[in-house]
Amino acid sequence: MPTWESSHNEYTTRFQMRRSRVLQNEISNPPNQRFGSHQSCSRQRFQQLSKQRLSISKDADPILGRNPFFLKDDEWRITRKVQTNQHSVSKLKTLFGYVDEVKDELIAYLNNNLGKKFETQELCARFTTDIVSSCVFGIKTTSHTDESSEFRKRSEHILDNNWRMLMWQVAPKLVDMLKIPLLDKISHNYFYNLVKSVVEMRKEKNLSRADFIQNLIDEKNENFSLMDMTAQTMTFFIDGFASSATEMSFMLFMLAIYPEVQDRLREELNSSKKLDFDTLHHLPYLDAVLNETLRLYPVGVSLNRECNQDTTITVKNKKYEFKVGDLLEIPVYAIHRDPQYFENPLSFDPDRFLTEPNNPALLTFGVGPRACLGSRFAKTQIKAGIAALVQNFRIVPGTNDCSMPTITNNKSLLITPDNEMSVKFEKL
Question: Which fold is adopted by the domain 3-427?
Fold first, then answer.
């Protein structure tokens, strides 16, 4: 298989059943823009490079087939507009009370389990599950203590369909041809019926609650079916549950193996009287630690755009021609670890984002019009959870292995560490 290598990291392409594939290597914009090839492709040439490589047929998968990540052209624009309205700062602020409530429950649970070893991914996934169940569906779950929770089981199962994920990534045209759904039938029926029951109950009893599903009910869009509503809630759910849990788990582990960073973060947090929504988003060192985690361990290792119109991009007097059907791949993981864009890239150094907080080479949440809309909500729950943990406990490694996580497994949809990431909590 062809490979692209950049500063100790190998980016491997896979057979995609596509006519051609272009790996974006060292394409930089003219002077005064240190890094910009992804900007050229994702913003300046958005009309020509607006399609995602992967798509899911709505006939095969009615829920995920309506996810804006997979939609194209006008369907994408319409759905994107609805999603944009739901992710406004004002609406996210109304959800913060639910985040706060789940955070308090997590602290209470850990106070009863001091010294116990926790696998960070599992702990953080339960935390984000409870947040999303409340903020999106308006239902109460207690994932840390209720092992029988059907909602939690369905949430876990979404990411456990490994063969579906692998087929979807390796041979998308075959998946489309055979109409293989990414979401299994049991999960599809569970979440569709959940949304249906919540919507019907609120309409029948004239109930209202400040959450995501209520925002969709209030839209009163006649062209917006119950299936569309389910797809919208699932978009918010998947972004808020899976991606956030993964990034939070890496951040938690890095704080455990870098106690000096943890102490410095605790000092910043303790200097704030109240950690409300606004305060959490104006703490420089908290931002820096999160950004450094996102740099080293981006949820998705790459971004891609498929060319839907013949176009030419000229950079440094060199022309790059793209034909319809060509695929542009932006190797995020490799770029984040390239010394051309980040000094000492393999070091965990949050200070780099204090001097340059808006480094354009940080691509974790994408770039351009198709950038992830859920990034603000994801950061909110990660920051709220991490801040509470750091203020209440000393976080220590769960084993004697304090080495940084390594990533060689590319079979999972989300970035997955090779080594165990576990922590223990001690009272301050």
Answer: Cytochrome p450 (1.10.630)
